[in-house]
Amino acid sequence: MLKYFNAALTKLGRAQPFDHLAGMAQLALDSGPVALVDLAPAPTVIGCSDDAVSICEQVVRMACDVDTVEVGDLDGVGLPLTGAALPFEPPWNAVLVLPMVGGGRRLAFLVFVPPSGLEARRVAHFVTAARRQVAENALTQRYRSDLKRYIMMFDHLERTANIGVWECDLVSGAMFWSDEMFRIHDRSPGEPMPSVSDALNYFIAPYNKQLEKLLLSAAVTSDPLDVTMPIRTASGRKRTVRVIAQRQHADDDGTDRLAGVLQDVTAAHEANERLWWTANHDALTRLPNRALFADRFRTALDRRRRTKHDVCLVLVDVDDFKQVNDTLGHAAGDRLLCLVAERLRKTVRTNDTVARTGGDEFSILLEDLESPGALDAVLERIRSNLDIHLGWDEQTVLVNLSAGAAVAPEHGDNEHDLTCAADLALYRMKEQRRSALALYDPSFGQAQQERAQLMVAARKALRDGAIVPHYQPQVDIASGRIVGVEALARWIDGDEVRTATEFSCALDDHELGAQIGLAVVDRAIVEIAQINRGRERKLALAVNASAGELLRDSFLKRIGSRVEAVGRDAAPITIEITEGVVFDDPHGRLAQEIHEANRKGINFSLDDFGSGVASLLHISTLPISELKVDRRFVINVEHDLAKQKVLRGIIEVARTLGLRLIVEGAETAEQVRLITELGGRYIQGHYYSRAIPFEALQRLLAEEDAGMPLSVAAG
């Protein structure tokens, strides 16, 4: 396109200038000097014949003041025209002013009349022809100006957008490159145009051959082409370019062309690659994350159905990872995860995938296993590398890894079955409490069958209303009064009451766990509102929630609507979350949900505080109003000075940050006394009460309202 702009500009540049037009007027009229004047805003000479170049400004000004001569005024004039007299020496002493209009401009020919005069008819013919010529000339000048502007705009567009224009003559093979094409390839504009083969050779193999085929196809079919490929510029830089092309059929010169643009998209391409990497990799270990692993897992199983080669899934878990965090700190935990990632990556083959799929969970995908021997060799290498020696703070800690493996198609032919099989094998190894790897065995399925039976029973219990909240009191040590309760799920199975631990597989299930959670919360809100009816001091309610529950649109909305339904008797709601919940939120979606719920009046508590890797960070970034101390800091605290120091520090942190602190797990009077001395105020533990049914809670509160002291170990 730029080539055609320049060609048109060159052609217009050959059009007659106003000087030439004035000279033609002198010849046509057989007159004296001729000047062409632009009358607005002030008379300005824009063209003159050769012998009018010496015309002075005063002559022009006085000549423009005389009356103009119109073509109609010349009809019937037989005598020569002598023009208007001017007080100057010849040839400037007589002038004929002929008005013109061209391109919206008011122009006039100043024709200086010789002593013999001018023939009127000749003047009339000239005026008619000249007006047409002036109009055409003005239009040509406007086109020229527009083309210059378009060329400047086009050049600016090319530079700004890094877009070059190119064209290939399909008959001669001649190439045309715009200036930006040369710049993109690190060549200087004005160099000789490249040949087709030279242009293709900038593309890195094998893309050059691919592009050649695509261009030939586009030239034959006239279908548009749009591809993105890497090039190596003349200076050796690697760039990424987008090539767009389409055949243009013959125009005025009768030649078909393949024309298009080439855009340097290196910056956008690199940015997209960084975004893709970030979305599909773990930032700490730089391994693929769960999403990328799942995609490769599906692809590997699809390919296995064609190649018939085995695929093996290995799940690896870091034993006692939380203990490393608790004793050595989260920096040591991070270092451990990086060591595990490096060890596993070096253990497997280059075409295998190692991913971090959870906090301390890794997954390995072994593909294209052509024989049992190939599988055994890789599994043996993994098995022999499951001991990690972590050097930290002048000490070395031995950390064990447990692993479970399953093979397709022997143990399943889809993601779900293989994952379940590998998970069962992993669970069997973790029970041994030593570094080990087990390949799935059908005998492991007994546990899976029991789990399936429990899931069926749990669904029935939920339908029958047998999964209900029990309430563990939260007590103000100073007053001895119950200030709140935590609702905990219990399964009433005949005369037996099952704790959440006994049906944890149902609670961990994405669908069933969410249904149980909502049912327990619904009932707890209604029951505590019933207790609060008429009470001066409202009893607070705390509930647990997983990441999956919080990310469901229905969960927080359900809580909000239920609280609204019970009205003013509704308990202040606190949702307890663990650090693991926040860890599973790399993109911040869960944090957004938490902030939104907090704005609507729902409080949040950080449960098991002190057990994770980033407790203080979570306090600063989330709307946390309460901390619950991990019960492990309370076990044997009366005999452990180190735990006492940690507990005192946590209490001080809560006081400094203005957060309510609840200490969980107190079971003895000595522990309660020590917590009080350390500055603790609120306790939730078996010393005061286990989780009790609704009716028992009502009786306990009635006794408290009657002035009876809270009995120890109620329920």
Can you tell me about this structure?
The chain is α+β, with helices and mostly antiparallel strands and 715 residues long. It folds into four domains: 2-153, Beta-Lactamase (2-Layer Sandwich), CATH 3.30.450; 162-271, PAS domain (Beta-Lactamase, 2-Layer Sandwich); 286-440, Alpha-Beta Plaits (2-Layer Sandwich); 453-705, TIM Barrel. Helix content is 44%, strand content 23%. The chain is built from 24 helices and 25 strands. Helix 14 packs parallel to helix 16 (510-532) and helix 16 runs parallel beside helix 18. The protein is elongated and about 135 Å long. It starts with a helix and ends in a 10-residue tail after the last helix. Residues 4-16 have low confidence and may be disordered.
Q: Tell me the CATH superfamily of the largest domain.
A: EAL domain
How far from one another are the termini? 88 Å
SS summary, helix count: 24
Query: What is CATH's topology name of the largest domain?
Result: TIM Barrel
Proportion in β-strands: 15-25%
| Net shape | elongated
Placed side by side, the strands forming the largest sheet appear as: 17-18-20-21-22-23-24-25
Q: Name the helicity range.
A: 40-55%
Could you say how many structural domains there are in total?
4
- Largest sheet, if any? 8 strands, mixed, barrel
Rg of Cα set? 45 Å
User: Structural class per helix/strand content?
Assistant: alpha+beta
Give a count of the beta strands, DSSP E runs of length 2 or more.
25
* CATH architecture type of the largest domain: Alpha-Beta Barrel
**How is the quaternary structure best described?**
single chain
The first-level CATH class of the largest domain is given as Alpha Beta
The unreliable regions are 4-16
Mean pLDDT: 85
